[in-house]
């Protein structure tokens, strides 16, 4: 063993004989004073030149951790020796050791993190060379630890993030090193950093935002690249909005090269994704700035995607997609929009050209590229456009529909990979923990609103049916429904899941009306009907889910008319439970409400229905019509309705309110149900007569009901 070490030892001695002499003195030291003196000499020799890993390890073997530990924690320095000199010596030794990655992750180094962090903010003479040297060595230690696999986690737990923030804000010696290390920690463990030091990081963000707003030199471009890392995962403080917007306006309003403009577009995209348009001021300056943002984004998208063979800067184009999405939202906002009508018209025209470029790009995507994150991002922006506009680019959209169906099916069938793709999309230009609307984990959810519009039109609907979209949508609906079923915590589900289910229901409603033959012949709709029947009874009982229940009830009632011969609808427990729940939904919409100064009550919306009636009323009227159509097709339904006492309670409700308070469309809906129940079942007619049905029908001019009840 000794013979193996001799060549290396002799080589080290010949290379640095002074260091070897000091190490010898250190080994022979008999007390603390001699050891301290030898350590000073060793440290001086180390700083005087580079040393290799073997020499560094020999220093560590000679010194160990015990004496540096004492130097860092001692409170009593020798006479004439300032306290910080001992600590500086200890830190210098640790910095030397940390150059070895194995030692940088040693427990004896990691447990010094809290002590080292305090040195960054310690007060002292800023011109003291020893203090400056100690700060440099401290940053060297912490940076070395950050470079180890578990180092960032240890630094965050040791309070380093807060210390770095304070060091940067203090603008003392080494503050630039503090910022560099902060950037590294945020890149490695953003969520943990914010969890441990949110107030301090927000203070840094405010400082950087102010610097950004004031910057007149090239530093503003550097800040553009830094700022996205310091945007929090919760919400960007409003006090930063003005500075960030003003800084971006100054940059983007100038003639720039791409390397100067692109970081600004990416920062704007981060802000748009996190805050929507809240960070843009209201008024003329804000509307002009937003129009400029969307214009620049559209130009960038067209330049990148229209030229075949050019290399696409995917991170920049993805950022431009986020800005286009902001433009779409503002152009479709009816109230409190930042844009004036002429600006909206102009931007829609410009965005139409950019969307045309996106379609052109997607038409060229082959199977080998379908799992690439940039394709997912491109489908997302197209989905956002189709959710609001399907009339323009109609031919191009129809041409692309087969690809979109295949793409959505591919990602649906490989759901885990799809989720990973959505995360990669976020990483292209937007932090994965950025607040605001999340990047959905599947392509189909992006396309649902657009497909809802397209299924109303003959041409696009035929393409979607031919490509198998209805079957895919049924499978998707059933999969998503499982997430809301008993046994799952629906409180943690994103709103997008329930919105997606509602949109699926709207698509199915379109197909029921426009393609009834498809509902009757495709087996997937039988499975869908079974799910609707078993799910509605529990759904109508759940607070806050009335709108989804309305969609499910109405869709189920309309499908029941088409599938009335199915064995599942012949009075089975599931079918009886479904219709009982549907009656509950339809019957609880209105109540009698007393009015001051009047003897008669008026018909009013129930409290649960009142706040969402604008979204609910079309479904309610359609549901009443569908229930009416089911009564003659299902002989068991009228007796079931009678047992629920719905016809009796409905007549009682109408008899207790002023006829003038019941709108004509309500009268028609109620009469339709009552007439069909009366025609279908003698016991229903008798029950209605006992409830003063003929008199009520006369008061409301329900001629058909009055005639029906007058018959035997």
From TrEMBL:
This is Neurochondrin. InterPro entries: Neurochondrin. Pfam families: Neurochondrin. GO terms for biological process: neuron projection development; regulation of neuronal synaptic plasticity. Belongs to the neurochondrin family. One of its GO terms (cellular component) is dendrite. It comes from the Eukaryota.
């Amino acid at each position: 063993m000794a013979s193996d070490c001799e060549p290396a030892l002799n080589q080290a001695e010949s290379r640095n004989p002074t260091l070897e002499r000091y190490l010898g003195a250190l080994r022979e030291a008999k007390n603390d004073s001699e050891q301290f003196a030898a350590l000073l000499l060793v440290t001086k020799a180390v700083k005087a030149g580079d040393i290799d890993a073997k020499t560094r390890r020999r220093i560590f073997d000679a010194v160990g951790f015990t004496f540096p530990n004492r130097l860092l924690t001692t409170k009593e320095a020798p006479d004439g020796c300032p306290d910080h000199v001992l600590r500086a010596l200890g830190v210098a030794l640790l910095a030397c050791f940390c150059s070895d990655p194995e030692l940088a992750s040693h427990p004896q180094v990691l447990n010094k993190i809290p002590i080292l962090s305090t040195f960054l903010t310690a007060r002292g003479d800023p011109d003291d060379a020893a203090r400056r040297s100690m700060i440099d060595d401290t940053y060297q230690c912490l940076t070395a630890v950050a470079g180890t696999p578990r180092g960032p986690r240890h630094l965050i737990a040791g309070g380093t993030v807060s210390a770095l923030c304070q060091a940067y804000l203090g603008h003392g010696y080494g503050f630039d090193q503090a910022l560099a290390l902060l950037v590294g920690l945020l890149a490695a463990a953003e969520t943990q950093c914010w969890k441990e030091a949110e107030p301090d990081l927000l203070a840094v963000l405010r400082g950087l935002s102010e610097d950004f707003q004031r910057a007149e030199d090239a530093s503003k471009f550097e800040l553009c690249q830094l700022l996205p890392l310091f945007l929090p995962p919760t919400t960007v403080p409003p006090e930063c909005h003005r500075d960030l917007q003003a800084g971006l306006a100054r940059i983007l309003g100038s003639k720039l090269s791409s390397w100067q403009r692109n970081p600004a577009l990416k920062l704007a995209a981060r802000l748009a994704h996190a805050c929507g348009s809240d960070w843009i001021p209201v008024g003329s300056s804000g509307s002009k700035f937003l129009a400029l943002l969307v214009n620049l984004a559209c130009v960038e998208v067209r330049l990148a995607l229209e030229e075949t063979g050019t290399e696409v800067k995917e991170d920049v184009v993805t950022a431009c997609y986020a800005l286009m999405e902001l433009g779409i939202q503002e152009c479709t906002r009816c109230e409190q929009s930042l844009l004036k009508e002429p600006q909206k018209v102009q931007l829609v025209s410009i965005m139409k050209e950019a969307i045309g470029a996106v379609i052109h790009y997607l038409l060229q995507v082959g199977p080998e590229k379908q799992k690439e994150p940039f394709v997912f991002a491109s489908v997302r922006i197209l989905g956002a456009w189709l959710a609001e506009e399907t009339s323009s680019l109609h031919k191009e959209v129809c041409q692309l529909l087969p690809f979109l169906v295949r793409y959505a099916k591919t990602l649906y069938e490989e759901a885990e990979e799809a989720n990973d793709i959505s995360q990669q999309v976020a990483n292209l230009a937007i932090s994965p923990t950025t607040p605001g609307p999340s990047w959905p984990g599947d392509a189909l959810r992006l396309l649902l609103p657009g497909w809802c519009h397209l299924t109303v039109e003959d041409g696009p609907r035929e393409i979607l049916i031919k490509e198998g979209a209805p079957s895919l949508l049924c499978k998707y609906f059933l999969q998503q429904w499982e997430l809301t079923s008993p046994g799952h915590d629906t409180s943690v589900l994103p709103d997008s899941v329930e919105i997606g289910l509602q949109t699926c229901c709207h698509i199915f409603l379109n197909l029921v009306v426009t393609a009834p033959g498809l509902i009757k012949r495709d087996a997937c709709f039988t499975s869908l009907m079974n799910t609707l029947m078993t799910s509605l009874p529990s759904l109508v009982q759940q607070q806050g889910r009335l709108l989804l229940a309305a969609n499910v009830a109405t869709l189920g009632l309309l499908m029941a008319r088409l599938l009335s011969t199915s064995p599942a609808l012949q009075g089975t427990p599931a079918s009886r439970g479904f219709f009982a729940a549907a009656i509950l939904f339809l019957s609880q919409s209105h109540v009698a409400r007393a009015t001051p100064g009047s003897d008669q009550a008026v018909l009013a919306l129930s409290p649960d229905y009142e706040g969402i009636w604008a979204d609910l009323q079309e479904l309610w009227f359609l549901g009443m019509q569908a229930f009416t159509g089911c009564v003659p097709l299902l002989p068991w339904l009228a007796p079931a309705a009678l047992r629920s006492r719905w016809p009796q309670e409905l007549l009682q409700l109408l008899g207790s309110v002023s006829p003038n308070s019941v709108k004509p469309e309500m009268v028609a809906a109620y009469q339709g149900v009552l007439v069909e129940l009366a025609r279908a079942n003698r016991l229903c007619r008798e029950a209605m007569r006992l409830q003063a049905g003929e008199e009520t029908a006369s008061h409301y001019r329900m001629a058909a009901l009055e005639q029906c009840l007058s018959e035997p």
